[in-house]
């Protein structure tokens, strides 16, 4: 495209809340054949909440949640916030300034797995099965059954272990963005395949993908793995776009032919992307491709 055409399209995009950084992304966007969407915060609203809970010990739900929340209080992860909110709802004694009723020591983040800390002399682990197995915590058949049931209905199961034993589980739900399904089917009508990528487990990811109409899912994928998946698709000769919001998406956003960041996402993702969707609305993925199509057809 001519510099003028790029300037016009960039201006038009900006007025619609689609920030295009440079002409190269604009020149490639109309050739995109596959779009890889991150799950949490991109296809979903990114504000998960605890919608169900189960006890697996004689501890009270309040006690399990207070200890879990104390461990999660130091983390910025959306699941952490959901656990803290839930504990607060159960317990009126919450200190509104510190967001906790107990202090945690030795707090650790286990990326893609959960958190751990010592609270009131107890070792508290909060996270997925992988975290529990890595710490030699036994998963009983009863717990296994709850995890499976939770994941099959598109929820993430957060396990809470106290001193090495599963004491409770929380089912966390993060609703799809209302426009997600519409955008995926519109892209399909344009001949563009939508793919989901996530650090979350296979069962939950597959259930959510089904709701939104996505057939290809890459689950339990870490940041490096996300970028590798993009390169695999490019290796098949496809022009690939990536849409993401998190720090864990930034390598994939940079690797893609067209990286699109959700405006409400982290600064790292926004910096790594070629295009920023300022309204955080997935319909603007189509807006960006349309702008590219129009810019390039005008000069032909
Ligand atoms: P995503 O790619 O969906 O943003 P992450 O890579 O951040 O997911 O996390 C993957 C999985 O690890 C989550 O679905 C959850 O099971 C577990 N997990 C990560 N962080 C936490 C946390 N702070 N508390 C509990 N579970 C967590
Ligand atoms: Mg995300």
TrEMBL record:
<comment type="similarity">
    <text>Belongs to the cation transport ATPase (P-type) (TC 3.A.3) family. Type IB subfamily.</text>
</comment>
<protein>
    <recommendedName>
        <fullName>P-type ATPase A domain-containing protein</fullName>
    </recommendedName>
</protein>
């Amino acid at each position: 495209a001519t510099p003028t055409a790029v300037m016009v399209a960039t201006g038009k995009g900006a007025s619609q809340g689609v920030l295009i950084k440079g002409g190269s992304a604009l020149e490639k966007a109309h050739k995109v054949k596959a779009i890889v969407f991150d799950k949490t915060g991109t296809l979903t609203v990114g504000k998960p909440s605890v919608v169900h809970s189960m006890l697996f010990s004689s501890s009270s739900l309040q006690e399990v949640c207070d200890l879990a929340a104390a461990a999660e209080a130091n983390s910025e992860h959306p699941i952490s916030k959901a656990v803290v909110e839930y504990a607060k709802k159960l317990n009126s004694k919450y200190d509104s300034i510190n967001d906790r009723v107990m202090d945690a020591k030795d707090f650790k983040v286990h990326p893609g797995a959960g958190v751990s800390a010592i609270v009131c002399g107890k070792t508290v682990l909060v996270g997925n099965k992988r975290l529990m197995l890595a710490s030699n915590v036994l998963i009983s058949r009863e717990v296994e059954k709850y995890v499976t049931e939770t994941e099959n209905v598109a929820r993430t199961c957060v396990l809470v272990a106290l001193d090495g034993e599963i004491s409770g589980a929380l089912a966390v739900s993060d609703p799809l963005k209302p426009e997600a399904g519409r955008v995926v089917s519109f892209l399909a009508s344009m001949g563009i395949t939508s793919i989901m990528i996530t650090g979350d487990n296979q069962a939950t990811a597959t259930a959510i993908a089904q709701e939104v109409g996505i057939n290809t899912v890459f689950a339990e994928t870490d940041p490096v793995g996300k970028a590798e998946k993009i390169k695999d698709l490019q290796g098949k000769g496809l022009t690939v776009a990536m849409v993401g919001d998190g720090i864990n998406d930034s390598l994939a956003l940079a690797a893609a032919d067209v990286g699109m960041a959700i405006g409400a996402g982290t600064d790292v993702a926004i910096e790594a992307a070629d295009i920023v969707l300022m309204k955080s609305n997935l319909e603007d993925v189509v807006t960006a491709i349309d702008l590219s199509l129009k810019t390039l057809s005008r000069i032909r």
